[in-house]
Design goal:
By secondary structure, the chain is of the alpha+beta class. It is built from four helices and seven strands. The strands form two sheets. It has a five-stranded mixed β-sheet.
Length: 148
């Protein structure tokens, strides 16, 4: 799950002190569908910093809630407001994420060096999704090889 550190960093999420952070503002249907249809409470999350000097994995987190409507879509003052969304038929969903720990930064360039990660969605050319699935093998490799 990508986040811009200026909006919500791993440090911000950890400062929430055992409280989950709502993952607001996802406005891509494929990313929304990953949250809505595939994420389960307890799933591991690679907390990824993007749109910064050195993008990469900055921490580990866990999905802390089932998907539910993102209230920012209804808020006219929010940059994530969507005039077509209604409470009866919300367009955008979110999950709550609880940060577990900050890790050393695993930069995008470092991820690309490992053949075991060659098929990761986040490494595909042109990928701009803020949320992408990670296979069990990719998760194990990152958490047991790169973060040890």
């Amino acid at each position: 799950m990508k986040s811009e550190p200026g909006e919500v960093s791993i440090d911000d999420a950890l400062a929430a002190a055992h409280q989950a952070v709502p993952w607001t503002g996802v406005r891509n249907y494929q990313a929304r569908n990953f949250m809505r249809d595939a994420m389960q409470v307890g799933d591991g999350v690679l907390f990824y910093h993007s749109s910064c000097a050195e993008p990469g994995i900055a921490g580990l987190a866990v999905v802390a809630s089932a998907a539910y409507p993102d209230d920012t879509q209804f808020d006219r003052q929010s940059k994530y407001f969507d005039a077509k969304a209604t409470h009866e038929s919300p367009r955008w969903m979110l999950v709550d994420v609880r940060a577990l720990k900050k890790t050393r930064l695993i930069a995008l360039a470092e991820l690309r060096l490992h053949p075991e990660l060659a098929d990761m969605m986040i490494l595909k050319r042109g990928n701009r999704l803020s949320i992408t699935p990670v296979t069990p093998a990719e998760w194990l490799y990152i958490t047991q090889q790169l973060l040890q």
